Amino acid sequence: MTTDSEATLHCGVNEHYRRIWHTVKLIPAGRVASYGQIADLAGLPGRARMVGKALQAAPKPMQLPWHRVLRSNGQIAFPAGSDTAEEQKGRLQEEEVVVLKNRVRLVEYQWRPDLAELLFGLAF
DNA sequence: CACATGACATCCA
DNA sequence: GTGGATGCCATGT
């Protein structure tokens, strides 16, 4: 194992995924964040797609609050009516987040972390 | 190596 | 509101 697989392992995706997962864990119950927002907070501006990959690759036992991550317009990223979308809607409603037409009102529910929150969360 | 696909975002018509 | 073009980049064929 010489070249890229090792390099990729060292400085690459795994490290990014770790940071993404960590950031998602910081979203408080009852609030939501967008993929792009998570990417930014994780130090990966412009890489919203990687957030999707990271969540997809996230081991289930990790218990990530993936349901709090939405599109930049507040929509659930899965096709309306799909099992996954329904589960996400259910989990959000458990947290008093209103979901209508597969979508959440970001003006009401989007997470807006203050500085102290970020310092505490990301300092690890 | 080239190409397609995707739990996305932004800009513009 | 819709839809297309572009940027982004890991993964799989």
Automatic annotation (TrEMBL):
<dbReference type="GO" id="GO:0032259">
    <property type="term" value="P:methylation"/>
</dbReference>
<dbReference type="InterPro" id="IPR036388">
    <property type="entry name" value="WH-like_DNA-bd_sf"/>
</dbReference>
<dbReference type="InterPro" id="IPR014048">
    <property type="entry name" value="MethylDNA_cys_MeTrfase_DNA-bd"/>
</dbReference>
<protein>
    <submittedName>
        <fullName>Methylated-DNA--[protein]-cysteine S-methyltransferase</fullName>
        <ecNumber>2.1.1.63</ecNumber>
    </submittedName>
</protein>
<dbReference type="GO" id="GO:0003908">
    <property type="term" value="F:methylated-DNA-[protein]-cysteine S-methyltransferase activity"/>
</dbReference>
<dbReference type="Pfam" id="PF01035">
    <property type="entry name" value="DNA_binding_1"/>
</dbReference>
<keyword id="KW-0489">Methyltransferase</keyword>
<feature type="domain" description="Methylated-DNA-[protein]-cysteine S-methyltransferase DNA binding">
    <location>
        <begin position="17"/>
        <end position="97"/>
    </location>
</feature>
<keyword id="KW-0227">DNA damage</keyword>
<dbReference type="InterPro" id="IPR036217">
    <property type="entry name" value="MethylDNA_cys_MeTrfase_DNAb"/>
</dbReference>
<dbReference type="InterPro" id="IPR052520">
    <property type="entry name" value="ATL_DNA_repair"/>
</dbReference>
<keyword id="KW-0808">Transferase</keyword>
